[in-house]
Design brief:
Length: 140
């Protein structure tokens, strides 16, 4: 269930012009991004739900994955409009690369409702959410 994180990170690593790279969401906090290069992407699990458990031999689990687009732009540090503009193309690129992409052993990723963005002093953390359905076969 959690192995998909590496696959998502590898796929996003091919996006050009992301000097902050692609990291685990475990490395993400406003304090941690203070000295980081931008833009940057952070990937991590955000729980799961049971999609289907009616089969006695398998369960379908929908894992929710977040990709946080992190940008810094102090052009409008108070309102954040410059940071949102800076994040727009990268967020679109992430969505284009992950929406309906099918990692091995999973159904195609589907977009999901994300949590709200976080903005402070010129740094915007803009989340995108995806669900990955994985079939887990029962073992005796």
């Amino acid at each position: 269930m959690l192995a998909i994180e590496r696959l998502i990170r590898d796929r996003l690593a091919a996006i050009p012009d992301v000097p902050g790279g692609v990291s685990s969401v475990a490395e993400l906090s406003m304090e941690a991004v203070a000295g980081r290069r931008f833009p940057a992407l952070f990937v991590g699990a955000d729980g799961y739900r049971v999609e289907d458990d009616k089969s006695p031999g398998a369960i379908a689990v929908a894992s929710r994955w977040l990709v946080i687009v992190a940008v810094r732009h102090v052009g409008d540090a108070r309102g954040g409009s410059a940071a949102r503009d800076a994040a727009s193309d990268l967020a679109t690129e992430v969505m284009a690369r992950l929406y309906r992409w099918q990692p091995p052993g999973h159904k195609p990723l589907m977009a999901a409702a994300p949590p709200k963005p976080d903005y402070a002093t010129g740094v915007l953390l803009y989340p995108l959410a995806f669900e990955a359905i994985h079939i887990i076969n029962r073992k005796e």
